Amino acid sequence: MRVPLPRLLRLPWTAVLTAFVLLASGFTAMSASGAESGCRVDYTVNKWTGGYTAQIKVTNLGPALDGWRLTWTYTGDQQVTSAWNAAVTQTGRSVVAAHTDWNGALATGGSADFGLQGTWRSADPAPGDFALNGTPCGGDGTPPPTTPPTTPPPTTPPTGADCGGAVICSDFEDQTGPAPSGAWQFTAPDCQGTGTAAVDTAVAHSGSRSLRVDGRAGYCNHAFVASTADLSSVGPVMYVRMWVRHTTALPSAHVTFVSLPDSSQGGRSLRVGGQNGALQWNRETDDATLPAQSPAGVALSRPLPTGSWQCLRFAIDTTAPGLDTWLGDEQIPGLHADGVPTQDIDQQWLVRTAPPRPTALRLGWESYGTGDDTLWFDDVSVGSAPLGC
Ligand code: CA
After folding, report:
1. Integer Cα distance of 301 and 290 in angstroms
2. Helices within 24-131 (DSSP H only)
């Protein structure tokens, strides 16, 4: 995929938006409804191959509001990655935008402006089912309710029942024994030392269970739990979402906590972990890293926070050079590969041109030198459609 986010992140938004207006390609504006209803939404989108920004103006045509919440449903495969002047969350195709501290009051006839950026692949039609505080815009003219919406917007991730058809969709609540079983199997593919994995009933992101890994330093102390799901046909873009909770900061030495056996590497793994204290991708066959481990490259990645649950998401293109990574709502610029080599980021990564073809998922811990950690995984999904946190 060719989402030009790293370059965009280095520019002020005004410059980016001006550039898009000047390019004027794909520039469209639409109004979601007429003036006869309780609200009106002007949704103006600037799009390019694989990405878009949308400027959204919501006008309250009903009684004054002391807080607002605008919802809509995407009919394409858009995925919101960031937003400004509203708290925007996406679950499946459903999007919720909630007011911020400074724009919650909406007088009759008043409006609020906010914007967002996202990605899309095959289709990105503008949404048409906007609703303000639950009342459809362009509906029957019923004014929106005057009671404030319930904020903040929901942050509970999809659980077992609603991963939208994902091939892996696990909240580990079905793991009733102390050891991983059924769809999750302990594995130590090379050699086994003192690393362990267990179902934990004391720490969980959802429900009352998660997967706990006690990983130890040294190559043979690695411990992984492998999903039994065959991921060979997930794609063309494989979307991975997990919640992970670490105890110890990522060390200077190389470690891995997600391992994806990759048929394009003869079964060796595409790996997610850390080095130099920051998140990184690593390819087992040639030890290439993303970003490059130069100081400038490492600075474009992020540490993995400890002591709290973190939502980590990947989009892995299996047909073209393309890899994206999100920590929470942030797309990490140093963990982005596209078809254009960028020094300190993906110049080294793109030396190997065959795109990855992950076939399986392993969660755990592997340390090639120093570095041990206790970490937990929960609400893990892998599918062919984008996944929200
Ligand atoms: Ca759980």
Report:
1. 9
2. none
Point out which residues pair with 245 in neighbouring strands: 376
- Give the full edge-to-edge strand order of the sheet including 28-31: 28-31, 39-48, 51-60, 111-119, 79-84
DSSP, residue by residue, 266-311: TT-EEEEEEETTEEEEEETTT--EES-SSHHHHHTS----BSS-EE
**What are the pLDDT digits (tens) for 268-295?**
999 999 999 999 999 999 999 999 999 9
Q: Give this prediction's pTM.
A: 0.62
CA of 191 from ligand 1 middle (Å) equals: 29
| Cα distance between residue 37 and residue 254, in whole Å | 58
Tell me the pLDDT band of 51, cut-offs 50, 70 and 90. confident
Cβ(150)–Cβ(157) below 8 Å: no
d(CA 114, CA 358): 38
Whether 232 has a pLDDT exceeding 90, the answer reads yes
Can you tell me whether residue 172 is helix, strand or coil?
coil
The Å distance, Cα 261 to ligand 1 centre, comes to 25
d(CA 117, CA 323): 18
- What distance in angstroms lies between residue 310's CA and the mean position of ligand 1's atoms? 14
The total of other beta-carbon atoms located within 10 Å of residue 358's CB is: 24
Distance 307 CA to ligand 1 centre (A): 17
- C-alpha of residue 311 to centroid of ligand 1, in Å: 14
pLDDT digits (tens, 9 = 90+) for 55-89: 899 999 988 999 999 999 999 999 887 776 788 88
What does each C-alpha distance from 182 to 26, 163, 186, 229, 230 come to in angstroms? 48, 19, 10, 11, 14
Q: How far is the CA of 171 from the centre of ligand 1 (A)?
A: 4
Mean pLDDT of 87-114: 88
| Count of other CB atoms within 10 angstroms of residue 182 | 11
Q: 243: CA distance to ligand 1 center in Å?
A: 10
Q: What is residue 162's three-state secondary structure?
A: coil
- CA 174 – ligand 1 centroid, Å: 9
Domains of the chain: 20-136 (2.60.40.290), 168-383 (2.60.120.200)
pLDDT tens column, 172-215:
999 999 999 999 999 987 788 899 999 999 999 999 999 999 99
